[in-house]
Design goal:
Elements: H1 2-17, H2 23-40, H3 55-73, H4 78-92, H5 108-119, H6 127-143, H7 149-169, H8 173-185, H9 189-196, H10 206-210, H11 216-233, H12 236-245, H13 252-267, H14 272-287, H15 296-311, H16 320-331, H17 338-363, H18 383-401, H19 411-414, H20 416-424, H21 430-434, H22 438-456, H23 459-465, H24 474-491, H25 494-514, H26 520-536, H27 545-552, H28 558-585
Helix pairs in contact: 2-3, 3-4, 4-22, 5-6, 6-7, 7-8, 11-16, 11-20, 12-13, 13-14, 13-15, 13-17, 14-15, 14-27, 15-17, 15-27, 16-22, 16-25, 16-26, 17-28, 18-20, 22-25, 23-25, 24-25, 24-26, 24-28, 25-26, 26-28
Length: 591
């Protein structure tokens, strides 16, 4: 207790001292604190505490804690933290890490002894052949990506039977029979117990870790970036906004609803931040029409980030947490197509938009009687503009209806179409590439790398096996995880929140599916609810970039944003639970 008290005092003093420091000094202090806390995990006696964690898994714990603290404190950009996570994983946890950091993955001496005892001393099998089998077994096991009890038994059996067949071909029938007997003894209670008692240390695979930069989900997101960049470059977004806002008339309340609908629609396929920036730019001239005491200005400024945050929930590419959830499902052998996600994502968005609109109208009464939005411009008719229009329509149609027409294309493959078409037609040039949000892709890749580390080192399985998830109620788990996720997403990056929680909850869901306390539909519902909860964290200016942009206009008070955002967060989370329960009850995820 005394040590914890001194540690708390130390952290308090450090944080208090930041009041008199420069920005760089504060960042360095935060990094120092993060490193001290993270590195301390390497010296925790997990085995003595009863936790089944080997030295490599302790490094994963340290890496996970490092990522969490860096993403929360943000002494450096969050995408930079992701690159550091991948670099440290490759250098310290992978099968191509620094030589002195690679431990023995299993007890080679004991495995060789098992081979010797299974074959027996003397007889027709020469000591030289026994040594050859031992060397072959160890060579094969060393090259395997994952070493476990099953792999050891299979490798032992294969090498012994292979040697038996060779002995039989050379007419050494006695040796062949002795080796066959040895193969049978591998399944005896004594040798089975010895194999079972072996301890294994598994490493991340270098290729798997590197592949996080080009995961199919990354390509899906990149396809969305290409569509968004082309739409902006050829004014498809502005012109669509002009056309779509026209039916909402001049009543300020309905104009605001129209702005929310258009913003949400764009957020389904474009960056939430870019959408919010574009719509706020359209709105700026309009805000000057309000009287100085008209609270409607705050309502209009707030409606954009609310719609941008909610709209991203509607499609798999609308926001990174959705993509991270899809990745976790795919790793579990589960999947949701682009169209199926929209079947429940879009209705949720519509309901939440109406709820958000009613809350804003109630909280910020609009005194202005009439409002006209003047959005100029017209659709371009150049060949490249037409390419953009057609490609945009075809890509969206394929994402939505490919499964219905049994074309055999998944969402990730379809995403390559706009990338290829826009590159070949020079719609998107190298200068356009420089302006894309590559930092988001790297941030997502870092989250994927954490998931790989948890899975391939066996940490997720070992920790999950130590917890009796089979006795847990799936509904209670979903509600508890949802509230934790919403709380984290309110104070830190939505993508970072999903990157931290999704691998853990995917492992928990997998364990519960194996124990038959949850089915595949329940696992999908759990992961989708976490993706939704990540996007619902929007109560503060720091919660999400669209909120910060709206707050920067000077028309929104933090109190008003906090109250409206908190109400929306909690209502959205409640509706998420209701939606997931309903979809599971009708067997939607099993269709």
């Amino acid at each position: 207790m005394q040590r914890n008290g001194w540690t708390g005092c130390f952290i308090f003093v450090c944080l208090t001292a930041t009041d008199t420091m420069t920005t760089n000094q504060k960042s360095l202090l935060k990094i120092a604190i993060v490193l001290i806390i993270s590195l301390s995990m390497l010296f925790v006696p997990f085995e003595a505490l009863g936790a089944p964690i080997n030295p490599v898994q302790a490094r994963v714990v340290a890496l996970f804690l490092f990522a969490a603290l860096m993403w929360i404190l943000e002494p450096i950009p969050i995408w930079t933290t992701s690159t550091l996570v991948i670099a440290m994983a490759l250098l310290g946890i992978s099968n191509q890490s620094l030589t002195f950091l690679r431990p023995d993955r299993y007890d080679k001496t004991e495995v060789s002894a098992i081979v010797q005892d299974a074959i027996g001393v003397g007889g027709a099998v020469s000591p030289e052949l026994v040594r050859q089998i031992q060397d072959s077994v160890n060579t094969r096991l060393t090259k395997k990506p994952t070493v476990n009890e099953q792999e050891v038994r299979m490798t032992l059996g294969f090498q012994i039977m292979d040697s038996s067949e060779k002995a039989e071909k050379s007419n050494d029938l006695a040796a062949a029979q002795q080796l066959r007997d040895a193969h049978h003894r591998l399944y005896s209670p004594e040798i089975s117990a010895r194999i079972h008692s072996l301890k294994f240390v598994n490493l991340m695979q270098q290729k798997t870790t590197m592949a996080t930069f080009a995961d199919p989900i990354i390509i899906l997101f990149l396809g969305g970036f290409f569509l968004a960049a082309a739409a902006t470059k050829y004014r498809l977004d502005i012109n669509l906004a002009r056309v779509m806002l026209r039916p909402f008339g001049t009543n300020p309340k309905f104009v605001m609803l129209g702005l929310m609908v258009v913003t949400a629609l764009f957020s389904m396929f474009m960056s939430n931040t870019a959408t919010a920036a574009m719509m706020l730019a359209i709105l700026t001239p309009v805000l000057s029409l309000f009287g100085p005491n008209d609270r409607g200005r705050a309502a209009f400024a707030l409606c954009i980030p609310v719609a941008a945050n909610i709209g991203g929930i509607g499609t798999p590419i609308g926001t990174p947490p959705n993509a991270i959830a899809l990745k976790a499902m795919q790793d579990m052998g589960l999947s949701i197509t682009f169209g199926k996600w929209m079947l429940f994502g879009v209705p949720f968005v519509i309901v939440m938009l109406l709820v958000g609109w009613l809350i804003l109208v109630k909280m910020f009464p609009i005194q202005q009687k009439e409002l006209k939005l003047e959005v100029g411009g017209s659709f371009l008719k150049t060949p490249k503009a037409i390419v953009v229009y057609v490609t945009f329509a075809v890509t969206i149609a394929l994402w939505c209806f490919s499964e219905n027409f049994k074309l055999g294309l998944d969402s990730n493959t379809i995403a390559i179409i706009p990338i290829a078409v826009f590159a070949a037609t020079k719609v998107i040039t190298k200068d356009d590439l420089k302006s894309m949000s590559w930092d988001v892709l790297w941030l997502v890749a870092g989250g994927f790398a954490l998931g790989v580390a948890l899975q391939e080192t066996g940490l997720a399985k070992d920790m999950i096996d130590a917890i009796p998830f089979g006795t847990w109620n799936p509904t209670v788990l979903m509600i508890g995880a949802g509230f934790i996720c919403l709380f984290m997403a309110t104070f830190m990056s939505h993508t970072a929140t999903a990157s931290l929680l999704m691998p853990i909850l995917a492992g928990v869901a997998g364990a519960m599916v194996q124990s038959h306390s949850m089915d595949g539909a329940g696992a999908i519902g759990l992961l989708c609810s976490i993706a939704f909860a990540s996007s619902l964290g929007m109560a503060l200016p720091i919660s999400t970039p669209p909120n910060a942009l709206a707050y920067a206009t000077g028309l929104v008070e933090q109190k008003g944003m906090a109250i409206s955002g908190t109400i929306l967060c909690l209502l959205g989370l409640f509706l998420t639970f209701v939606l997931m329960y309903f979809l599971q009850s009708i067997g939607f995820f099993a269709m």
